[in-house]
Write a structure and sequence with these properties.
about 120 residues; mainly alpha; single chain; elongated
């Protein structure tokens, strides 16, 4: 018989799973946006600057949202750097690796979450 997983553990696994999958998909979309065109990507620079300003604004406004704001600002900075022609390849590769890693970790946490939900029913 399966062991019942505590509710707090299920909530944590579910949040990590959905957050990881969402963050991974978001990073892969930003990475694709930064590589539009050959050389300098204007849409990538605009979106990167917007995300950076938005993230820093969120981080400065509310102390409880500081981490989320800084992560958003970091994603914006990486998108902007990935849009540049010289160092863009390296930054784009790091964004791809990070996005795939977040998808994998998020998928694993979702697997554990649904397995725990099944054990509770």
């Amino acid at each position: 018989m399966r062991e019942i997983v505590p509710r707090e553990t299920l909530v944590r696994q579910g949040m990590r799973g959905f957050g990881g999958v969402g963050g991974g998909v978001g990073l892969l979309i930003l990475q694709s946006l930064a590589r539009i065109g050959s050389g300098l990507s204007l849409p990538g620079l605009i979106v990167g600057a917007g995300l950076t300003v938005l993230g820093l604004g969120v981080a400065a406004k509310d102390p409880t949202d500081r981490d989320a704001g800084l992560v958003t600002a970091a994603a914006g900075i990486m998108t902007g750097v990935a849009s540049l022609p010289i160092v863009g390849g390296l930054a784009s590769g790091l964004m791809w690796i990070s996005g795939v890693g977040l998808l994998a970790i998020g998928g694993y946490n979702l697997y554990r979450f649904f397995k725990g939900i099944k054990a509770r029913s």
